[in-house]
Amino acid sequence: MICFFKLITSFLIISNVLADNALEQFAANSKGHTNNWAVLVDTSRFWFNYRHVANVLSIYRSVKRLGIPDSQIILMIADDMACNPRNPRPATVFNNAKQHINVYGDDVEVDYRGYEVTVENFIRVLTGRLPPETPRSKQLLTDEGSNILIYLTGHGGDGFLKFQDSEEITSQEMADALEQMWQKQRYNEIFFMIDTCQAASMYEKFYSPNILAVGSSLVGEDSLSHHVDASIGVYIIDRYTYYALEFLEQCGAGSKRTMAEFLRVCPKSQCISTVGIRTDLFKRRLTEVPITDFFGSVRPVELTVLNNHTIPIIKNVNKPKDSVLKKNKYSFVPALSY
């Protein structure tokens, strides 16, 4: 009988050790990506660029719906179309001629608006080189575990993107800003998404690791609008963003759709321009990267093994800018708003 109990005890000890080793290995493999952020930028002014505001607000709505809280979204809008005197429906922005979704909504939190949307402020946000008095809501408080979606829309050319029709950011300046972020351990992976004319030229000079990039048009090509709303009198969304949103609307917070699927969005028959993709700086296989790694949220997970030893699989969570979570075993995580 004693031998039987010794055998059972040995079996349980070995089982616990194996379980601990397996979970710790899983945790080690998961520790790179711990939180998600988004930097969403419309660089254009004037009423006839209504579609660029609709573009960025549509992406903003999608990432919030998929779980990224406002506290981890930097939204930059160069002009206020919702309050433009030409807007026949004040306080609204629509991305579809049927006007069934007001993407401006009641809960849009704009961090930089109007003449605050400059090349300097954009670079400072990315690199963290902001004045000390800058509110936390205007800071990109990322770390080495952050996956960042950077979305840009506006008017571009070969190797530049216009801001406010008065200045430009070049592809080299963009590449250098991302390298600063890497050197300062401000990201784990970046998905760079740009919807402009000659969009691919903006990521050609990237040289930092772990960056996946997509552009709505190749060098020498225009990026075209999708459709006009006759009651508003202008084009209200661009083609690439329209079809990207069509894909995202089919995804939920627990979606199994991958980045490989997303990058097939908007073939030339739909976009008319040729969508450009750059993958050489990105280490992972796109078929194994969930869409929610960039457009969604990371949630904390704890597993408890037989001996009540708890291992946090994801040690950090999406941390709100304006509050600090209690550092105890059972922390309250604020609900994600839609």
Helices and strands in order, then pairings?
Blueprint: H1 2-30, E1 35-42, H2 50-65, E2 73-77, E3 112-113, H3 119-127, E4 146-153, E5 156-157, E6 160-163, E7 167-170, H4 171-183, E8 189-195, E9 211-215, E10 225-229, E11 234-238, H5 239-248, H6 259-262, H7 268-271, E12 276-278, H8 292-295, E13 302-304, E14 310-312
Parallel strand pairs: 1-2, 1-4, 2-3, 4-8, 8-9
Antiparallel strand pairs: 5-6, 6-7, 9-12, 10-11, 13-14
Helix pairs in contact: 2-5
Describe this structure in words.
By secondary structure, the protein is an alpha/beta fold. Helix content is 26%, strand content 19%. The chain has 8 helices and 14 strands. The protein has helices at 2-30, 50-65, 119-127, 171-183, 239-248, 259-262, 268-271, 292-295, and strands at 35-42, 73-77, 112-113, 146-153, 156-157, 160-163, 167-170, 189-195, 211-215, 225-229, 234-238, 276-278, 302-304, 310-312. The strands form 4 sheets. The chain has a 7-stranded mixed sheet. Strands 5-6-7 form a 3-stranded antiparallel sheet. A two-stranded antiparallel ribbon has the order 10-11. Helix 2 runs parallel beside helix 5 (239-248). The longest helix is centred in the first third of the chain and has 29 residues, at 2-30. The protein is globular.
Sketch the major β-sheet.
7 strands, mixed
**What is the string of helix and strand elements?**
HEHEEHEEEEHEEEEHHHEHEE
Give the spatial strand order of the biggest sheet. Answer: 3-2-1-4-8-9-12
Please state roughly what percent of the residues sit in beta strands, choosing from under 5%, 5-15%, 15-25%, 25-35%, 35-45% or over 45%.
15-25%
DSSP helix fraction: 25-40%
The radius of gyration is: 22 Å
Number of strands: 14
- Quickly give the structural class: alpha/beta
Distance between the termini: 61 Å
Please state the average pLDDT score.
84
Number of helices: 8
Runs in which pLDDT lies below 50 for 5 or more consecutive residues are 26-30, 319-333
Estimate the global geometry from the Cα principal axes.
Answer: globular
